[in-house]
Design a protein that fits this description.
The complex is a heterodimer of chains A (247) and B (179). Chain A is 28% helix and 19% strand. Chain A has a single domain, classed as Glutaconate Coenzyme A-transferase (3-Layer(aba) Sandwich). Chain A is built from seven helices and twelve strands. The longest helix of chain A has 17 residues. By secondary structure, chain A is an alpha/beta fold. With 179 residues, chain B is an alpha/beta fold. Chain B has three domains: 36 residues, no CATH class; 68 residues, no CATH class; 61 residues, no CATH class. Chain B is built from six helices and eight strands. In chain B, the strands form two sheets. Chain B has a five-stranded mixed β-sheet, covered by helices on one side. The radius of gyration of chain B is 20 Å and the shape is globular. The chains are: A alpha/beta (247), B alpha/beta (179). At the A-B interface, α3 and α4 of A face loops of B.
């Protein structure tokens, strides 16, 4: 719990991600994505009752095989995808592979990007999330490009990055300049704090508004129906018990 | 699929593409104005799968859903290790992915053959063994020792199970699949 605000960073991010879901669209998140999973279920139980959800490796997965999910995305039928990156850079590139300035001798290796190298190009919108907003996670240039934020205009691409959501702020991907800009700063944080914690220049941020805080209705739905559903269906149940307050 | 190459919708601008000599960026051959990555088909020499059940003809019920069929189709030789060998398996009775015998070259009876991995519905991942493997893999000398203990000095699969697989996992496996 985050003191006077009355909600935790995880709860805030789940609510902010839920607002990105459009009713009637197909929206998905990958493995190890507890915050987007909560966000997807919250959207379904608030403003997007007719959204089709795909939460990989859970009961909310309509397919037998990953091929069916990838082909759905290739057909242009995936409206929204949530993904994270160890590093995310100014140009919307993300890194799920390795850390280290010499790519031949990385200091840390990760499991990799699964299908992100194509889903980032096929989902109509991708919203990146990152639970750490620091200069080591939001960087000028990723050490390894697992998926690229933008591509030359003649490369066939159905969609790309839309936003980045962190515990401090929401960044918007400005497609015309192919870089991330500050969209809003979450309650309890200042524009200066966000600039300090970001490893790249955010441009002119003077007029940046505050993020609309979670509403009572959003918090209530998250802490009752969504929390119970996650526990009951084994959808990141232990995380839900710990990270979402019981309503 | 058997085709020489396929288009891939993605990967442009990544360091993955930069490291692959089996993928290139190519124009739409139908006179279009767009480009995509094109990947050369992979034709593995050998594929090895572990499965719940197999029969003597080589029909296989994997017991889990995964892309085993497409891998088996692509590979020149397919070897399946199975927890259990049965007289006859048909697709209707199979659980998860089903490999028809026409795709399978060899079947080996290897109970606990997924260890230190787990097998859906049969036995869990051996996390202690996984941690030991990860620790051993940090250096060449420790990894050589690990290989010696787990592979080179082990006479056969039964000896491996006797030496390495913990009692709790053997019990879990023995108690499963008896329906």
């Amino acid at each position: 719990m985050n003191g006077s605000r009355g909600y935790s960073d995880d709860e805030l991010m789940a609510i902010l991600l839920s607002r990105e879901v459009h009713d009637g669209e197909v929206s998905a998140c990958g493995a190890l994505s507890q915050i987007p999973a909560a966000g997807l279920l919250l959207a379904k139980h608030t403003h997007a009752p007719d959204a089709d959800l795909i939460i990989l490796n859970t009961v909310f997965r309509p397919f037998q095989s990953s091929r069916q999910f990838h082909f759905l995305a290739q057909r242009g039928e995936l409206g929204l995808f949530f993904v994270s990156g160890v590093q995310i850079d100014r140009h919307g590139n993300y890194n799920l592979h390795q850390i280290g300035s010499d790519p031949e001798h990385p200091t840390l290796r990760f499991p990799g990007g699964y299908g992100g190298g194509m889903i980032y190009y096929c989902a109509r919108r991708t919203v990146l999330f990152r639970t750490e907003h620091t200069r080591r996670s939001l960087v000028e240039q990723v050490d390894f490009v697992s998926a690229a934020g933008s591509t030359p205009p003649d490369v066939l691409r159905l969609g790309g990055p839309s936003k980045v959501v962190t515990p401090k702020a929401t960044l918007r991907f400005a497609a015309d300049e192919a870089q991330l800009r500050l969209e809003s700063v979450h309650p309890g944080h200042s524009i200066d704090q966000v600039r300090e914690s970001t490893g790249f220049d955010l441009g002119d941020t003077a007029a940046t508004p505050q993020t609309a805080p979670p509403t009572e209705a959003e918090l209530h739905a998250l802490r009752t129906v969504v929390r119970a559903l996650m526990i009951e269906t084994g959808t990141y149940a232990r995380w839900a018990e710990r990270a979402i307050a019981a309503g | 699929m058997g085709v020489p190459y396929v288009p891939v919708l993605g990967l442009v601008g990544t360091d993955l593409l930069a490291r692959r000599d089996d993928m290139v960026i190519a124009p739409d051959p139908f006179g279009g104005s767009t480009q995509t990555v094109v990947a050369r088909a992979m034709r593995p020499d050998i594929a090895v799968f572990h499965a719940h059940k197999a029969d003597r003809q080589g029909n296989v019920s994997c017991g889990y859903a995964a892309e085993t069929v497409i891998l088996a189709e692509a590979s020149a030789q397919v070897i399946v290790t199975a927890e259990e060998i049965v007289d006859r398996l048909v697709e209707k009775e199979s659980v998860g992915a089903f490999l028809p015998s026409i795709l399978v070259d060899s079947v080996v009876h290897a109970p606990l053959g997924a260890h230190p991995g787990g097998l859906t519905g049969r036995y869990p991942v051996d996390h202690d063994a996984m941690r030991a493997y990860v620790a051993a893999a940090q250096g060449d000398a420790t990894f050589a020792t690990w290989l010696d203990e787990h592979v080179f000095s082990v006479a056969d699969h039964d000896a491996y199970v006797a030496r390495v697989v913990p009692e709790a996992i053997r019990v879990a496996a023995a108690g499963s699949g008896k329906r």
